[in-house]
Write a structure and sequence with these properties.
- The structure is a single chain.
- The protein is an alpha+beta fold.
- It folds into three domains: 70 residues, no CATH class; 124 residues, Jelly Rolls (Sandwich); 60 residues, Phage tail protein beta-alpha-beta fold (3-Layer(bab) Sandwich), CATH 3.55.50.
- It is 32% helix and 32% strand.
- It is built from seven helices and 18 strands.
- A seven-stranded mixed β-sheet has the order 1-4-5-7-8-11-12.
- A hairpin with a 7-residue loop joins strand 11 and strand 12.
- Helix 1 packs across helix 3.
- The longest helix is centred in the N-terminal third of the chain and has 29 residues.
- About 13% of the residues have low confidence.
Length: 271
């Protein structure tokens, strides 16, 4: 759409009011705002009626065009930084890591089901609305909720972990799935029909959102696997049976390792 057409539509939206459009006044304002010379005045009363009717029809048509564009508009959000937070039209907050994306249709959030398509990984804090479910579709999974906090991952397998509330997790909307409540997780391996419960989801699944790791009497072996998966490395230690309790910032891996070595009196080796 050209810049001039956009100006016309913006003008319509600003001055059009159903049943209250003064065409002469509207036309004058348009010319004054854009420095455009008016078209030759039609002769006679009938000419003015046709002229005004035509302008009014054009303005209404402009409103209809803009309405259709808005109704069918599709928005895609792509995380550019390490962690970007987006606010959806219903006030739902979505946190995406770099490269992840979320797509939704504007009209869906105005009426009917709130539906989004996720690529990558996303943490959702869904605004509760009993009359309108919130649905997340990925390349190989489907999640439906009313209001909750949960994590959805799509690679290497589809995974959901619930931090608050309750969600329905399945391969597609029409296939049997599982209901997950607070503290529960499930994975959907490639080729599987129904998700498998996964007790290892844990609070650290959203360490990238929160910015901290939290361990509560956790075996060191599990601690090192969690940290290693986050940074993409592997660790070994002189005594993997020791247990750790504490909270650590995700900003500095080397500092975390030093603190654990000091607290547990062990030596940790990056492999």
């Amino acid at each position: 759409m050209s810049e001039n057409e956009n100006k016309h539509l913006d003008f319509v939206l600003k001055h059009y009011r159903e049943g209250k459009l003064d065409t002469n006044k509207a036309i004058s304002k348009f010319y004054a705002a854009h420095g455009t010379a008016p078209a030759a005045k039609p002769k006679g009363r009938r000419g003015w009626i046709y002229f005004a009717t035509g302008i009014a029809a054009a303005l209404v048509l402009g409103v209809m065009i803009r309405f259709v564009l808005i109704s069918t508009a599709e928005v895609t959000l792509v995380a550019q930084g390490a962690k970007d937070v987006f606010l959806l039209p219903d006030s739902t907050r979505v946190t995406l890591p770099e490269g992840a994306s979320l797509t939704y249709k504007v009209r869906g959030f105005e009426k009917g089901t709130r539906a989004v398509t996720l690529t990558g990984k996303g943490y959702f804090e869904v605004t509760k609305d009993l009359g309108r479910p919130f649905e997340v579709t990925t390349g190989n999974s489907f999640v439906r909720v009313l209001g909750t906090r949960f994590l959805v991952e799509t690679l290497p397998v589809a995974r959901v972990y619930v931090y608050q509330g309750k969600v329905h997790f399945a391969r597609t909307e029409n296939l049997e799935g599982v209901v997950l409540t607070e503290g529960m997780g499930a994975t959907l391996p490639k080729g599987a029909i129904k998700p498998h419960l996964d007790p290892k989801g844990g609070i650290n699944g959203i360490a990238w959102v929160r910015g901290t790791f939290i361990f509560d009497d956790t075996p060191l072996k599990e601690v090192l696997v969690t940290i290693g998966n986050y940074y993409g490395v592997s660790f070994g230690a002189t005594d993997l049976k020791k247990r750790l309790t504490g909270e650590f910032s995700t900003e500095d891996m080397d500092l975390i390792i030093e603190l654990i070595e000091s607290a547990l009196d062990v030596t940790i080796i990056k492999m």
